[in-house]
Amino acid sequence: MTETETNAYDVVVLGAGPVGENVADRTRAAGLTTAVVESELVGGECSYWACMPSKALLRPVIARADARRVPGLRQSVQGPLDASAVLAHRDYYTSNWKDDGQVGWLDSIGADLHRGHGRLTGPRTVTVTGPDGGERVLTARHAVAVCTGSRAALPGLPGLDAVKPWTSREATSSRTVPGRLIVIGGGVVATEMATVWQALGSQVTLLVRGKGLLPRMEPFAGELIADALKEAGADVRTGTSVKSVTRENETVVAVTGTGERIEADEILFATGRAPRTDDIGLESIGLDPGSWLPVDDSLRVTGHDWLYAVGDVNHRALLTHQGKYQARIAGAAIAARATGETLLAEPWGAHAATADHTAVPQVVFTDPEAAAVGLSLAEAKEAGHRVRAVDVDLSTVSGAGLYADGYQGRARMVVDIEDEILRGVTFVGPGVGELIHSATIAVAGQVPVSRLWHAVPSYPTISEVWLRLLEAYRDA
């Protein structure tokens, strides 16, 4: 590469995670020349430090928990997990932090990969500083898509850097099991990582500033997971803030708001996310570095007809699957505008990310699992809908009893009593992650309750909870 080169493309994508990959896939499928810029590993956060390694770590934990609830099997799985085998399983699913396969996929769709740090240096212009320090200028005829994702946000505690705290990256990639681990936070990363490391042999202390776990889900979800973590041996403390953290020799010391000292070998902060937009040149186009980027439903940034922000950076739904959904919409919208096709921007149209508003699904892979889509009861009421919540104890479903002795779980559907459609659904219990897509279809499709009676669940499966929910709604 010469010191400075200029290359012109139809589309330039900043970031080669799942979101950037899907934007590139859609624009290339439409025949648009596409460049992808990546400063780390192709495949992004999800592939190497989030979804894939965390679920690879969690799967043996959940499988053992399920097996311990099955007669004739529980006695065979009472011993500890083989931590080294679990970590090796994790390494396999991260491709040992090598991105050859992902690079090969980009090449197969005909997208050009530019390794290095990309920054906007003006409208439709991205300057890439390569590993050797040389610069390459990429210009976009039609669109630049910012798909740089988010990073862990650390609190402003004095001296925190010296403590070398874990974030989600260290928690999913650690080569060893800490004897004692403090987890700060009560969201998805905190609960999943507390589940993993407690099961692998750590003594976990979970410190939650709020009233409970998973505050964006129905309250019973966090309650059931907190109970399970305590039963597994974790120390779960709600209403607990941390005012200072220090590392004394090899020991981390966290001091709570009440002055209590808690010691551990490592400390994980799972206290939120921040956009990776602080050093991508936003100031060159009149935007604030480090800010979330507001977009319309075609994922185009407000006030910039050539700039798109897809995935975490727009702060609509910080979930990999939702970012990939947005990427498919954005890629199609970019292609439609580039070729002069009619933009189908009405709700649920081909170029409108409508699900971001009303039908976002999520699964928390703890034991028990929590899965939800759409609005919680509180959110539905806050949005002005006239709704009624219908609850069912999952243990009353035959399939749940067959799945596990002593099955504990709960289901809720939030019904709009004016439109007779579902505004939200939540399941908590072993194995419920595979139920959520049926709920997603019901919510996204605005399927009337009267039609759901004709969606017959197979017997005996946990899915029969749908029939129990409908019966409860009818009989209320």
Q: Over all CA atoms, what is the radius of gyration?
A: 24 Å
Give the count of helical stretches.
16
Distance between the termini: 71 Å
- Beta-sheet strand percentage? 25-35%
Q: How would the global form be characterised?
A: globular
Structural class per helix/strand content?
alpha/beta
The pLDDT mean sits at 97
Point out poorly predicted stretches. Answer: none
Helix content: 25-40%
Number of strands: 21
Largest sheet: 7 strands, mixed
Give me a quick take on this structure.
The chain is α/β, with parallel strands linked by helices and 476 residues long. Helices cover 32% and strands 25% of the residues. The protein contains 16 helices and 21 strands.
Give descriptors for this structure:
476 residues, alpha/beta, five-stranded antiparallel beta sheet, 16 helices, 21 strands, 32% helix, FAD/NAD-bd_sf, Class-I_Pyr_Nuc-Dis_Oxidored, flavin adenine dinucleotide binding, dihydrolipoyl dehydrogenase (NADH) activity, flavoprotein
